[in-house]
Design brief:
The complex is a heterodimer of chains A (227) and B (137). Chain A has 227 residues and is of the alpha+beta class. Helices cover 53% and strands 11% of the residues of chain A. Chain A is built from ten helices and five strands. The termini of chain A are far apart. Chain B has one domain (2-132): Up-down Bundle (de novo design (two linked rop proteins)), CATH 1.20.1440.130. Chain B has five helices and two strands; from the N terminus they run H-H-E-E-H-H-H. In chain B, strands 1-2 form a two-stranded antiparallel ribbon. In chain B, strand 1 and strand 2 (49-50) form a beta hairpin. Chain B is elongated, with a radius of gyration of 16 Å. Chain B starts with a helix and ends in a 5-residue tail after the last helix. The chains are: A alpha+beta (227), B mainly alpha (137). At the A-B interface, helix 1 and helix 7 of A face helix 1 and helix 2 of B.
Chain lengths: 227, 137
């Protein structure tokens, strides 16, 4: 076999150098930490929970309150959110019968759950909590297996119209870690062990409830009209 | 030679985008912040296939053709050199469509996509130039 021309040798050398540089850069990008991490089991300060009892949807004057303790990374919660919740929202919350309180209960088995809860908390700062909440659940399959989901959430933040610079600064500060932990502590005290769990009329309902069941429970709890 | 180097660079851009898409990379190095918006949009899939994956395949084939065209037995306007402008031309049209989506549908610009677009246009130009260039004996 004939030896390649000297010019070709130089070319293959350049091509090899570009290939090596490219591979090294990709390896660095894959291993690079995101710079965002939400600590677990932080000490909860009074300021973390001052006046905060979960994310409220609906009229504060609605006669029935339902608290949902949920984990953004839990498939059953996603299932409830996308299949059952739209009719609950339309028929019970929008009509003023129910005020819905979403409480974070990230489970230890879900590595991105606390990050997701914090991303939604940062969106609340810009009055777009429910938009972000919905985006996070709707794309669960996309970010759930991600090695580093922070970039995904930052993308959703842009999509729902947040000021991404402010959002990123909020995520880096991890300022809501205490608030999330407080919600977990409260749920644990109530006896919650899994998600989603609903607190309706002072009773806990573990596992997914269908919208029909929720409607029936709400009807039973609504104040009876006086004759 | 230039086509091979450009195809390799384009290949790395496409792999980078794809690694982000499948969750192996957390965030993209992107000054505008539009890269994530573009990559996470529904338009980042074409006929059910990730656009980044199409890019990987396209650049890999162009790299292979460019390397083949450099071999002595394919010297002159042999089939690899003739096929390159056809493929690169298709890539330019596809890139133009993707740029339209960025500007008018997604309303976000991804710098890596712009980099890929420039690369594809250069490859197309070089492949045409190579076809017209007289063969050295």
């Amino acid at each position: 076999m004939a030896a390649p021309a000297p010019g070709m040798n130089r070319f293959y050398l350049v091509l090899g150098a570009v290939a090596l540089a490219g591979i090294a850069w990709l390896v660095y990008q894959v291993g690079k930490p995101s710079g965002v991490s939400i600590p677990v089991n932080v000490t909860v300060l009074a300021a973390d929970t001052a006046g905060f009892r979960g994310y409220l949807m609906g009229s504060p004057a609605a006669p029935v309150e339902i608290s949902e303790f949920a984990d953004f990374q839990c498939p059953a919660c996603e299932n409830f959110e996308t299949i059952q919740f739209p009719s609950v929202e339309q028929q019970l919350i929008a009509t003023g019968m129910v005020r819905w309180r979403y409480r974070d209960f990230p489970l230890d088995m879900h590595p991105n759950a606390r990050l997701a809860a914090h991303a939604a908390a940062c969106a609340e700062e810009q009055n777009k909590y429910w938009e972000m909440h919905k985006a996070i659940y709707a794309r669960q399959s996309e970010w759930s297996p991600a090695r580093n989901a922070a970039g995904r959430f930052s993308g959703y933040a842009g999509e729902v119209g947040l000021d991404v610079g402010r959002y990123d600064a909020c995520m880096k500060s991890a300022k809501y870690a205490g608030r999330i932990q407080a919600s977990v502590d409260e749920g644990t005290k109530l006896g919650i062990t899994g998600t989603p769990t609903f607190l309706i009329g002072g009773r806990l309902y573990p596992n997914v409830l269908g919208s029909d069941s929720i409607r029936a429970l709400v009807r039973a709890l609504l104040p009876k009209p006086t004759q | 030679m230039g086509i091979a180097v450009l195809s390799l660079a384009g290949l790395f851009i496409a792999i980078y985008m794809y690694l982000y898409k499948i969750g192996k990379i957390g965030s993209l190095v992107c000054g505008t912040g539009g890269c994530e918006t573009v990559q996470l949009s529904p338009q980042a899939r074409f006929l059910g296939v990730e656009v980044a994956l199409i890019g990987i395949l396209g650049y890999a084939v162009m790299l292979l053709l460019a390397l083949l065209a450099l071999q002595p037995r394919f010297a002159g306007p042999a089939w690899p050199a003739r096929l390159l402008p056809v493929l690169a031309g298709g890539a330019v049209l596809f890139t133009a469509y993707l740029t339209y989506l960025e500007l008018f549908v997604i309303h976000a610009i991804c710098r890596w996509c712009v980099g890929s677009a420039v690369t594809v246009v250069l490859i197309f130009g070089l492949s045409l130039y190579d076809l017209r260039r007289p063969v050295r004996s």
